[in-house]
Amino acid sequence: MQPPSGGSRGIRISDADRERAAQRLHQALAEGRITVAELEERLTAVYAARYADDLTPPLADLPDVTAPVLSTPAGPPTILRAGVGGLRRTGVWRVPARLRVHSGMGSVLLDFTDAELPHPVVEVELQLGAGSARLLVPAGATADIDGLVSGMGSVRSKVPATPVPGHPHFRVYGRSGLGSVTVRRRYRFAGITF
């Protein structure tokens, strides 16, 4: 496929990005910032958008324009593979902008609470067979799990999905076969964290 004329236009956006932008416009209507006619015009532009830059004009004159739309991290993902014994990343570790996790049968634990998070958005692609995955995120972090498809297991997030400026945001997507996927904060009970 040929790149758009004039060179690359940046990062392509997802359906979730468009929906967040549309929610911001509906909120602006409820706040009395735009009229119904303006809402319809701007929604047309949002749903036609293909690149992050396309979402700037419909949101440019609204407060917190950057909150609903976060650019997808660039560069190749760091690949983590789990065997039957599973995979654990805990303690202090530097989190890349993109992670791809493959696990056939082992369980996966990604604990981001003490990790270095240099990127405002972290993409986590899960490709799981029979194993389960737990993602522990820091206080204030948000996670969008709409792109995660589960076969027979469950998918749960106990943190908000809408990004909050100044806090890390996780985009979790991919496939889970038989195991469950849970995104939550770390629990503390009687001096024990889990």
UniProtKB/TrEMBL annotation:
InterPro entries linked: DUF1707_SHOCT-like (IPR012551)
Record Pfam families: DUF1707
Domain spans labelled DUF1707: 11-63
Identification of the protein by name: DUF1707 domain-containing protein
Source organism of the structure: Pseudonocardia hispaniensis
